[in-house]
Design goal:
The protein is α/β, with parallel strands linked by helices. The chain has nine helices and nine strands. The structure holds adenosine-5-diphosphoribose. Adenosine-5-diphosphoribose (APR) binds next to α1.
Length: 228
């Protein structure tokens, strides 16, 4: 008998207690930088060094961060369930906590992508600077999805959601589509567990929704304890 499938959809909030800023909370990351200044292809064209510097800072923060109890509780679920993590986060905290199936729909900051037609994607933990190129001489950029660019692995993510026996949402404001549309792919009979201290923009769904209004490090273990 194969194990039940748990799909977990996570956003910046799950990494907040690891010290990584979220995007839209009061002291959100974007307040220090205007989104259009750093996270768009136009910004990279206009001022590549600003954009590379912004992500060099974020890459260092990720390397200095540790997975927290929420990441670990999700990884431990694999003892009892098949688990697929669909994350909007570009950090590797789920992987470092031990999750074995993580789908990054907005890219990964610890990978670099070349700007040429060769489309290299290479593991990259150092700074990316102007002049860092792929083997064919094309400038490297962070393997991160910028506003206006296509989201990654979305079909695969939606496919997993449609097969989930349990679905948990942790630390996302659900305001950024198409990724947030994943909730529409969960079968109506499948309960949706939400862990977030704030109200989230969950659209009207046929599913039973259980919202634990707590921080991830408390709420995720609590949901797993009670319902999994
Ligand atoms: N535990 C759980 N949730 C938290 C915590 C915490 N400790 N702290 C904050 N949150 C919640 C907030 O209440 C909010 O609902 O995390 C959510 C963070 O929302 P956003 O900052 O909008 O982050 P996210 O939803 O991941 O943004 C989606 O937007 O900017 C783009 O590409 C970027 O992937 C990102 C996408």
């Amino acid at each position: 008998m194969s194990k039940e499938l748990v799909v977990v959809f996570t956003g910046a909030g799950i990494s907040a207690e690891s010290g990584l800023k979220t995007f839209r909370d009061s002291d959100g990351l974007w307040e220090q930088y205007r989104i259009e200044d750093v996270a768009t292809p136009e910004a990279f064209q206009r001022d590549p060094e600003l954009v590379l510097r912004f992500y060099n800072e974020r890459r260092k923060q990720v390397l200095n961060a540790q997975p927290n109890r929420a990441h670990k509780a999700i990884a431990d679920l694999e003892k009892k369930y098949d688990v697929v993590v669909v994350t909007q986060n570009i950090d590797d905290l789920h992987e470092r906590a031990g999750s074995s199936k993580v789908i990054h729909v907005h890219g990964e900051i610890l990978k670099a992508r070349c700007t040429g037609p060769c489309n290299h994607i290479i593991p990259w933990k150092k700074d990316i600077n102007l002049g860092d190129t792929c083997e064919n001489g094309y400038q490297l950029r962070p393997h991160v999805v910028w506003f206006g660019e296509p989201v990654l692995h979305l079909d695969e993510a939606f496919e997993w959601a449609s097969k989930a026996d349990k679905f948990m949402i942790v630390g996302t404001s659900l305001v950024v589509y198409p990724a947030a549309g994943i909730v529409f792919h969960v079968r109506p009979s499948v309960p949706i567990y939400v862990v977030d201290p704030a109200d989230v923009m969950l659209p009207t769904l046929p599913n039973k929704v259980i919202h634990v209004k707590k921080r991830a490090t408390e709420g995720v273990p609590e949901v797993i304890e009670k319902y999994f």
